[in-house]
Structure formats: structure tokens, C-alpha cells
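Its record is retained below.
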Amino acid sequence: MRTLPLIALAFLAACNAPPAPVDTQGADPRVVQARGTLAESEQATIAIFETASPSVVLVISGGRAPGGFNTVELGSGTGFVWDEAGHIVTNNHVVQGQEVLVRPPGGDEIRATVIGRAPQYDIAVLRLEQPTQARPLALGTSSDLRVGQATFAIGNPFGFDQTITSGIVSALGRQLPTQEGREIADVIQTDAAINPGNSGGPLLDSAGRVIGVTTAIFSPSGAYAGLGFAVPIDTVARVVPQLIANGRAPIAGIGIVAADQSIATRLGVEGVLVWQTANGSPADRAGLRGTDPRGGVLGDVIVQAEGEPVRRLADLTNTLDRLGVGGNVNLTLRRGDRTLQVSVPITDISTPQETATPGK
């Protein structure tokens, strides 16, 4: 039998020996260090959240289950108190169910009625069946925003109530498609974390003012990827009073049906190709000409609006929205080899005719 060297035996003895007693006499107990004053940036964020969050609500949209006895939740999002009357502003796509419930922070669910929709801006307004004590949020402006300034989003991502995230204005002037075939102009891009459930919530500046309504994220996975978008508050502040008063926001148009962009591209057209004009519409009265497919004659091509280039339909509709119903838009047309200038009144079109896509 092999014998272990003396050094190995000593090592084993040391491993099996009981631990040596520790002398704790005279040792100081660990003391919690005082945190000190919070940084100014932390205090500012806390103040924004504590001031704004009581006015941010959970919005639940539901429908009736088969048999009509129970309500099935179809989705949830966020909303916020708009005015002293207690109207709630949210995204139109959040409230697509037959029934809508609103839950204030720490409160019970309250039934709500959708009193106005503007799908072309993805905005809706709710009226609560019971009053809320929450105060309306302060409104800012989106006209003077600068890339790099701080942003704060409060909402209910994935149903987690009262969540605040922060970031910056990542870009301005983005275009965001809507379900109506139009595009929302001057959309704010932010890297403040926005996830499903944030939709309809306020995007705030460092003064705690609403500068936008969060409406979408760009992410293949559907989760936060650093690309969030918000409808600018200047647009929202123009649309919401119309929704409260009339239940809808006018859709600015001139009464044309534009050819699909892919058709225009195949034909070598740069601009908005007029496919047809509605009888008696402002465009018809102003003499705009549509396309004659049988005769092989192209209609007028709108190449400028108010002196700005028109490369696609969104360029035109954004200009019409900015000028508003009742105004006039100055268009530059290309008709064959000629260039024409024409002024066309802007009217409220009952259906988004200009988004039609003949030939698709």
C-alpha cells in the first residue's frame, strides 16, 4: 500500500479541521450609508411622474363573448385626461371593441363611450360614465421640438400600470401610415421605451407637458427596439376639439382619386397622377383632368403644392391637412408638355377618395 507524503497528510488534516474561531470583539457592525440628496435629473423625473401619472389611465377594449353574457378583453392601451370635463384621449386603434373600460390609477374600472374618432390621425376621445378627479395634463407644443431633448412616456406596457420610461427626441418630421391609407405628418420619433400597451399614452417633455401621443413602435418582434413614434401634440390639439364637438374630424381633400403609386412609377410619372375627379368637386370645378385609360391619355400630374415638391400622395394630403378645410391650395400641374398653376379650394370629403388605388 502506498503511503502519502507528510505534506499531503498535513494538507488533509488542515481541510478537515474545524474552522478557527473568529475574534469579533471590537469589530464595527456594517452601517448603512446615507444616500444624500438625489441628483437634479432624478428629482426632475420623479416630479414629472408624480405630477402626470394620476392623469394617465388604463384603457381596456372588449367585446361580447358568444351568448352575450361576458365581456372578452380584446386589447388594452393607455389614455390621459384631456380637459376639466374629464374627456380621455387615446389612440383610435386601442378602442376597436364594442365596450370600453377605463381604470384610473388605484381606482375601479369605469365604463366609457367613444364620442369621436379620427382614424386618419389614430386619435379617439372617450367620455366616462362617472366623473374622475384627475386633472388634465399640461399641453406643450411640438413646433419647437429639437432632436436630442428629453422625452418621458407614461403608460401601461403589457398591462403593467403606471410605467415611466425616458429617452430623447430621436428624429422629427417622420411620416406614419394609418389604417385610412393616409399618413400622419411630422410624427415624433423617440427612443423612450414604448411597448404594446403604451399606445395612446402621453409623451412628455422635461417640463412635464404633453408633446405627443404615443402610437406605434417599429419592431419585427413587436417589442421595444428603440424606435417609438408619437402623434405631435399640435395635430392632436387641433383634432380633439373637433371630435368633442362633432364626433369626427374633417378630412381635407380636393375631390380627386389618385392613381396607385406603383402605376405612376411604371408609367414614368413623378408626382401624383390624377386618375379621376369627383363630379362637382373642387378639383373638377378647377379644371383638373383625370386619366383616359381607353384613349391612353394620362391625367394631370400634381408636382407641387404650395411651392413644395409633391412626390407621392402623402406630400399632397399633408399639405391639405396643414392648410385645413376652407382654405385654398396652390398646385403646380404637369399636363402633357405644359406646366399649369391652379388654386383649388379644400373641402371636407366624407370618404378618403384620394386614397383609392385604381389598378390594384
